[in-house]
Amino acid sequence: AAGDSFPAVVVGSGYGASVAALRLGEAGVTTLVLEMGRLWEEPAADGKVFCGMLNPDRRSMWFKDRTEAPLDTLLWLDVVNRPIDRYPGALDRVNFEEMSVYVGRGVGGGSLVNGGMAVTPARSHFEKVLPGVDADEMYRTYFPRARAMLGVNSVDPDWFGSTPYYRYARVARDQAHQAGLTTAYVPNVYDFGYMEREERGDVAASALASEVIYGNNHGKRSLDKTYLAAALGTGKVTLRTMSEVESVRPEPGGGYVLAVKEIDVNGSVVSRSEVSCRYLFLGAGSLGTTELLLRARESGALPGLGEELGTGWGPNGNIMTGRANHPWNPTGARQSAIPVLAIDDWNHPTHPVFAEIAPVPAGIETGISLYLAITDNPERGTFELDPASGKLRLNWRRGQNAPAVASAKSLFDRVNRANGTSYRYDLFGDDRAFAGDFCYHPLGGCPLGAATDAYGRLPGHPGLYAVDSSLIPGSIGVNPFVTITALAERNIARVLAEDVTTG
Ligand code: FAD
């Protein structure tokens, strides 16, 4: 098909991409956003845009025959996952050999499916992870800008203290305190005023109706409602959905040409076309951006890309674990799907852990305290392309999780000892108490200041930028999207000031 041409193209519509799209639009740069997933806007026959976690249907997952939820089993029974029809659902699980990575698919990327936890990292850790970035400027300007734009708010402690929907978090909090540990409220982009109205029955329930990893029908300020809405509001930004960028090559006179595959809801190819642009912003996520760049390097299309590309990948030290509570201390059948509390033991000298108290929104009493622990695992993986299939391969061995498991175990052994409780072995298959074979926080692949310059520019290829989680080298110590957003704000400000000419 004949190619379209735009001054700027943004690939993907997650955090980095949405920041780039808004700031380009505000600067008057006509910009096309290409997103491989759906626009989640039209309610289906049941009146809902997204399906819940208790009754997943084809809307749940990206072209799968069966859901692949993080909790595999309950009491060793295969009761969690369901067969579904193949469809461009909101959550994808990319299964590499020894690590599975959850990502969002659709307009808004990970913001559609994530827990909304909006955490700014400890400054000392940020400085350690990204020493080349001026932390003063980040903490003074870009973190506050990101939080304001994302709509970050906090739960009312009084309401938290009394609602049955956070009993699970209060139980886990008290047990942490019993072990001498500190807990902290975790800010979120879910509207807590809305959540309180859900409890009163004034509005349709979402967080209080077990909605989260397959999308929230209400309450969550996902990117389509914040950055992307503002970007489209500039009148300079347009969006093409179900459009996957397959490859990138340079245009002889400058700029880039993208090969784009458009699919329908059955996954059938509707069209293949080319789009050209002068400025290209890659926001396809840690996996997507790295894959596109590796493909362009390997094919010789973008020979300037160096050896650092594909390095510095990590799962943000993610480990999931569950504890069993005493029958006289129930966690509650009613649980808000949005986590609001964490055990903060990041200052531990040898085993730093930031552990979110996660819900088990099963609709029944399970007696489980579930946690997503973020640890400071120094292990890193690398990406390469499989020579036979051309697909992305992640070199990450399961054993590389050992430091993360050791840290999580150190913390939860203390909690168990102080409360006379034990682990749950029935949740993740294979009688394991710790799940480190999947992650929610893929980071790296195109590390800032190594695979790119200090602002995400790719070497040797003017006008080509990485803007997303691929820039963060494997760990940030807390949930990552506030950092991804703030870093994207910082980088795009510099790029607009120095590189981009309008008109
Ligand atoms: P993404 O948000 O991953 O967006 C990339 C987009 O690009 C996607 O929409 C994808 O469909 C699209 N894309 C990819 N390849 C192509 C291509 N070739 N062509 C066109 N489009 C493409 N983080 C937090 O901070 N707090 C949380 O509470 C939290 N909870 C999470 C819970 C879950 C279940 C998951 C999966 C993640 C969670 N995260 C959380 C992580 C967070 O969502 C991600 O770190 C974040 O979304 C990454 O942002 P990004 O800009 O790198 O790209």
UniProtKB/TrEMBL annotation:
<keyword id="KW-0274">FAD</keyword>
<dbReference type="InterPro" id="IPR000172">
    <property type="entry name" value="GMC_OxRdtase_N"/>
</dbReference>
<comment type="pathway">
    <text>Steroid metabolism; cholesterol degradation.</text>
</comment>
<dbReference type="Pfam" id="PF05199">
    <property type="entry name" value="GMC_oxred_C"/>
</dbReference>
<keyword id="KW-0443">Lipid metabolism</keyword>
<dbReference type="InterPro" id="IPR052542">
    <property type="entry name" value="Cholesterol_Oxidase"/>
</dbReference>
<keyword id="KW-1207">Sterol metabolism</keyword>
<dbReference type="InterPro" id="IPR006311">
    <property type="entry name" value="TAT_signal"/>
</dbReference>
<keyword id="KW-0732">Signal</keyword>
<dbReference type="Pfam" id="PF22500">
    <property type="entry name" value="GMC_oxred_C_1st"/>
</dbReference>
<dbReference type="Pfam" id="PF00732">
    <property type="entry name" value="GMC_oxred_N"/>
</dbReference>
<dbReference type="InterPro" id="IPR036188">
    <property type="entry name" value="FAD/NAD-bd_sf"/>
</dbReference>
<dbReference type="InterPro" id="IPR007867">
    <property type="entry name" value="GMC_OxRtase_C"/>
</dbReference>
<protein>
    <recommendedName>
        <fullName>Cholesterol oxidase</fullName>
        <ecNumber>1.1.3.6</ecNumber>
        <ecNumber>5.3.3.1</ecNumber>
    </recommendedName>
</protein>
<keyword id="KW-0153">Cholesterol metabolism</keyword>
<keyword id="KW-0285">Flavoprotein</keyword>
<keyword id="KW-0413">Isomerase</keyword>
<keyword id="KW-0560">Oxidoreductase</keyword>
<comment type="similarity">
    <text>Belongs to the GMC oxidoreductase family.</text>
</comment>
<feature type="domain" description="Glucose-methanol-choline oxidoreductase N-terminal">
    <location>
        <begin position="104"/>
        <end position="127"/>
    </location>
</feature>
<keyword id="KW-0753">Steroid metabolism</keyword>
